[in-house]
Design goal:
Blueprint: E1 12-17, E2 23-27, E3 31-33, E4 36-41, E5 48-59, E6 62-65, E7 72-81, E8 84-87, E9 92-95, E10 101-104, E11 107-110, E12 115-119, E13 124-127, E14 131-134, E15 137-141, E16 144-147, E17 151-154, E18 158-160, E19 163-166, E20 177-179, E21 183-186
């Protein structure tokens, strides 16, 4: 990430697709966000992307996928959320890291009309603690969803041709929609 320092809670970084150009920021290694990262666009059909070549993003601040002018936002890196992730209403987001591991320990909000897609047999989303609130659509296709703790509110995550694991220590509440030859294990 070079000179960008996101260790301070007042730090802010915006990745913005603009007219004629999609925007992609690629970090070579793991980093921690204690400030605010925004992904947005000013023109439809342009994307905003955050990629990590190695390691993962530890979010101790805010990670916001903003509606802007439409089109997609993507995260191409593993993620541990310890604070807040917001996917604004009517925003389309893809988590797309080969062998990506995404863990929620904080607040993860998917707004009304928003979509979050994770599609790959080598990816895993773990609801470990905190709250996953889906007012839009959260679909996992050919991947794994581990429910180990916390709560799931709003619309049910869609587990499509995927694996749902309920951890032995999970005491949280959640409902799921399993489709298309999905597997289930746990309590």
């Amino acid at each position: 990430m070079g000179e960008v320092d996101l260790s301070n809670s007042s730090a802010s970084l915006t990745i913005q697709g603009i007219s004629g150009l999609s925007s992609t920021l690629t970090a070579a290694d793991s980093f921690t966000n204690s400030g605010t990262i925004n992904l947005t666009t000013t023109v439809n059909n342009r994307s905003a992307n955050l990629n990590l070549t190695n390691g993962s993003l530890v979010n101790n601040g805010s990670l916001n996928f903003l509606t802007g002018s439409g089109s997609t936002r993507s995260l191409g890196g593993s993620l541990t959320n310890n604070n807040t992730i917001n996917i604004e209403d009517n925003t389309s987001v893809t988590f797309a890291k080969s062998s990506g591991v995404y863990t929620n320990n904080g607040t993860f909000d998917i707004g009304s009309g928003a979509t979050l897609a994770i599609s790959s047999s080598s990816q895993k989303f773990t609801q470990a603690a905190g709250t996953l609130d889906t007012q839009g659509t959260f679909t996992i296709t050919s991947a794994t969803f581990d429910f180990n703790g916390g709560t799931i509110t709003g619309n049910s995550p869609i587990i499509n041709a995927s694996t749902l694991n309920i951890g032995s220590g999970s005491t949280g509440v959640g409902t799921f929609l399993l489709r298309n030859s999905s597997a289930y294990s746990g309590n």
